[in-house]
Amino acid sequence: MIPRYSRPAMVALWEPEARFRIWFEIEAHATDALATLGVVPPEAAKAIWEKGGFDVARIDEIERETKHDVIAFLTSVAEHVGEPARFLHQGLTSSDVLDTCLAVQLARASDILLSDLDDLLAALKAKAMETKDMVCIGRSHGIHAEPVTFGLKMAQAYAEFARARARLVAARAEVATCAISGAVGTFANIDPRVEAHVAEKLGLTVEPVSTQVIPRDRHAMYFATLAVIASSIERLATEIRHLQRTEVLEAEEFFSPGQKGSSAMPHKRNPVLTENLTGLARLVRGMAIPAMENVALWHERDISHSSVERMIGPDATITLDFALARLTGVIRNLIVYPERMLKNLGKMGGLVHSQRVLLALTQAGASREAAYSLVQRNAMKVWESDGALQLQSLLEADPEVTAHLTPAQIAENFDLGYHLKHVDTIFARVFGA
Predict the structure, then answer these.
(1) CA distance 275 to 234
(2) DSSP run (H or E) holding 431
(3) Helix axes 306-332, 217-243, angle to 10 degrees
(4) Other CB atoms closer than 10 Å to residue 431's CB: what's the count?
(5) CA 115 to CA 342: how far, in whole Å?
(6) DSSP states of 399-427 as a string?
(7) Are 181 and 187 a contacting pair, CB within 8 Å?
(8) Which of 262, 304, 307, 385 is catalytic?
(9) In 316-386, at which residue ranges do the beta strands (DSSP E only) sit?
(10) 45 vs 36: CA distance, rounded Å
(11) At CA 204, angle to CA 189 and CA 59, rounded to 5?
C-alpha cells in the first residue's frame, strides 16, 4: 500500500527484513528439532542460531540469477553460517517455509487488527453512552420513519463490530497453522515431530493434512472476514455521510482549524474521511474474491495462489488497519447536533406517530384496513403540505377518526417518550447491565 493509507506497525510486518527473519526462525527451529531427533549434529543447530544471518540486498542479487526466492535466502544464510549450513532445510520444501511464514504474518496482523477493533469498540461505546437519550428520526428507505436515539445508532454499530471481532478471532485461529511436511506433504523426508516443534515455537497449530501447501480455504475464510469487517466500516461511514448532508446535518466529521473543504468554495465542510473509508472498504472487499479463487489449486500444489497472496496479504491488512484507525478517530471526534435532530424530527407535522394512531384505532374497534385508510388519507395531506399541516390536528377534525377516538386519546399517541421506553433494555443487551 502507498504510505498515505499505511501505519508503521502493520507495514513493518510485511517488510522483506521481517519476512526473512520469520523464514530464518522456521529453518532454525526445524534444525533444532532435527538435532533432537539425531538427524543433524547438535553443534550444527547451535551454529545456525549463533552465526545465522542474511542480507536482503544479497538475497535479491542471488534471486536474480536463481529465479527462486527460498534458494536465494538459504544461500545468503549459508554465507553467514558456513559449513554447518548444509544441515539447513533438511527434508523441507519451499512451501513449508512460505506457508508457515504467511500463517505467522497473518496471525500477527490479526493481533494488530484486534487491537484496532478494541479501540473502535471503546470509542463507539463512549459515543453511545454520551448520546443514549438524544432523540432523532429513524429512517427507512431514506424516508422519515419513527423516532430513535443517536445512541441506538452507535449501539448498533458497537454490536456489529463486536461480531466482527469475534469473527476475526475465529479467522485468526483458522489461518494460524504450520506445515513442515515436505514435498507433497507426506513427511517422507521429515519427521512430523519437527512440524509440531516449529508450530509450538511460532505460536501456531499443526496443519492436519497439508498436501504440499496449507489448504487455501483457510485463507479464503480469513480474507472474507476482513472483507466483512470492511463492509461494516462502510456501513457506518455511509451513515455519517448521510447525516452530514446539508439538508440533514445531524452529525458531522470534526473540521479542524485551518482545514479546507474545497479549493473553489470556502464554505465547504465535506465528509472526506468517511468518503475515504468507503473507498478503502471497496479495496479490501475486492481482495476476498481472489482469495476464494486460490482455493482450487492443482493436485498437491501449484503456485497460482502465490502472486495473489504476495499482494493481498499486505494490502488487505495494511488497508484495514488504516481504515479501522481512521474510523475510530471519526467516532471519537464526531460532532452531533441534538437541536437539528429535533428540528428534523418535527418537520413533517407529526407523521412519525402514524403507526401508533393506526394501532389505537384498531384497539378502539376499527378494522386494520379502515384504520390504515383513515390515518393514511390524513397523513398524505401533511406530506403534500411539506409539514405545514399537522397530523394530530387533521385527525382531531376527521369525524370518522373521532368516531373511535376522542381528541385526548388522539393526543396521547403523539408522545415521543413512548418510542424510547425500551432504549435501556437495548443498551443492556448490547453493553450489559
Answers:
(1) 9
(2) helix 423-431
(3) 30
(4) 15
(5) 36
(6) HHHHTTS-HHHHHHTT-GGGGGTTHHHHH
(7) yes
(8) 262
(9) 335-336
(10) 10
(11) 65
Residue 16 in grid coordinates: 522483506
Q: Compute the C-alpha angle 125/128/133, nearest 5°.
A: 150
Amino acid identity of residue 382, one-letter, is V
- Do 227 and 287 touch, CB atoms closer than 8 A? yes
Taking 90 as the threshold, does the pLDDT of residue 2 lie above it? no
DSSP percent split of the chain into helix, strand, coil, nearest 5: 65, 5, 30
Question: 140, 141, 256, 299: which one is catalytic?
Answer: 141
Residues β-bridged to residue 144 = 139
What pLDDT does residue 387 have?
87
141 is annotated as an active-site residue: yes
Q: Judge whether 178 and 92 are in contact, CB under 8 Å.
A: no
Predicted pLDDT at 433: 81
State pLDDT tens for residues 198-257: 999 999 999 999 999 999 999 999 999 999 999 999 999 999 999 999 999 999 999 989
Query: Residue 395 has what pLDDT?
Result: 97
333 is written with which cell numbers? 471526534
Hey, what's the torsion of the CAs at 394, 399, 403, 408, to 10 degrees? 40
And the C-alpha cell for 253? 466529521
pTM to 2 decimals? 0.95
262 is catalytic: yes
Is 20 a residue whose pLDDT tops 90?
Answer: yes
